[in-house]
Prior knowledge:
The chain is of the alpha+beta class and 431 residues long. The chain has 15 helices and 16 strands. It has two domains: 23-179 and 239-328, BirA Bifunctional Protein, domain 2; 337-430, 3-Layer(aba) Sandwich (Rossmann fold).
Amino acid sequence: MSTHKKIQAIKGMKDILPEANNAIEQSDFWMAFEQVIRKWSQSFGYRNIRTPVLENTGLFVRSIGDATDIVEKEMYTFIDSLNGDSLSLRPEGTASCVRAVLEHNLLYNNPQRLWYIGPMFRHENTQKGRYRQFHQVGAEALGFKGPDVDAELIAMSYDLWCRLGLADCVSLQVNTLGQKEERQAHRAALITYLEQHQDILDEDAKRRLYTNPLRVLDTKNPALQEMAENAPKLREYLQEDSLAHYQTFLSMLDGLGIPYIENHRLVRGLDYYNLSVFEWVTTDLGAQGTICAGGRYDGLIEELGGKPTPAAGFAMGIERILLLLEQKGGLTDYITPPDIYIIQQGEGAPLYALQTAQQLRAAGFNVIQHASTTSFKTQLRKADESGARFAVILGENEVKDQLITIKDLRQEHPQQTLNINDSINQFNIWK
C-alpha cells in the first residue's frame, strides 16, 4: 500500500467524467450541450473565437473596473517569475475577446459576430452552481450600433432556451444604463441619497458607497430593499438619445413576442456596460438564479486602445444551465449511444473484430469493440448496457467464413449472418 497522500482537485474546480451522478460532472451532457451550442451559434451567423485563459492583469482592471468585486477580491493573480508581469486567469470572456479582436485588427472595415466557450476563474465561496473554475458560453457583436443588435442577442438567447426546452422556466429582465455622463449625474445624486441612509447600510453597501454606488441598488439584503427601491432612478437622468435607444429596443422585443420585465435596479457587476442591459433568470436554482446576462458596452474597445466602436454581448453559465436541464430532464435526446457493439471470441476473432470495426466506422457507424476474452453472455450484457442499437457477434465460424452475425438489441428482428456489405445494408434498413 502506498504511503503517499492522494492529490485531489482544487476546491471549487470539478473533474468532468465519462460517468457521474449528475449532469455537471458527466462529460456526455457537456458534449451534448456543446453540440447544441455549435449548431445554434452557426444558425445566427456567429463565428468561434478561442483566447488564452491567462492574460495581463491590466486587461481586466481597465475593462471590468478596479472597484468591482471581481478585480478587488475574486481574480487569480500572480507575478510571472520570468519577467515580473502581473498575470491573471480570466474571470470572464468579453475582455479577452475584445483584446484579441484589436490585436489582430479583425474590425478593419468588417464588424464581427463572435462566440466563445471555455473555463473562467474566480476565487469565491463555492456552492451549488458557483465554482472557482466555471464555464461560460458568450456571444459578442462588435461594430454594430443600433438597438436591433441588442434585440438580436435577446432573440439569440431565447432561441437557445427553446432548443433546450427551458423557455418556460426562465424570464427576461431588462434595463438601460444610459451613457457615462448620464450615469455620473445620477451617481452624484445616488451618493447623496445613500449618505442620508448610512445608518442602515450593511458593510457591503458601505464599501461600495463611493466606489460603485450603483451596485448598492442591486443588493440582496432584505433590510435594504425599501431604501434601494426609493433611491433616485437612473431613468430620470437619461437624455433623448438614450431613451430613444431603449424604447426602440423594447419595441423590437415586443415585435418578436419575447416577454420581459423592466427592472430599473438591474445594473450588472462590470463597469463597461452602457445603454441596454439584461439578465435571464430562473427561480428553480435558488440563490444562483441568473443563467445568462449581458448588454451593450460601447466604450470598452476604445478603453482597450481601439477606435470608438459600438459593441454588445452576453455570457451564460454552463454549469447553471446543466443544473436546470438536469431538473427538467433535458439534453438526453442529444446524447448519442454507439450504433454497434462488437462481441468476439475464439481464434482469430480479435483481429477480425478490429478489421470489421474499421469497415463499419468507414460506413459511418459508431462502434465499440469488446477487448477482452470474457464469455459471450457477459459481452452481450455489456453490449446492452452500452446503449448500442446493434450487436455484431464474431466467433470462430464467422472468422472462418468471413461473415458477421448481427443482432438488433432494441427491436424484435431475427438474428442474421451476412457478409459485411449486406450487414451494412441491413443495419440501415433496421434503423
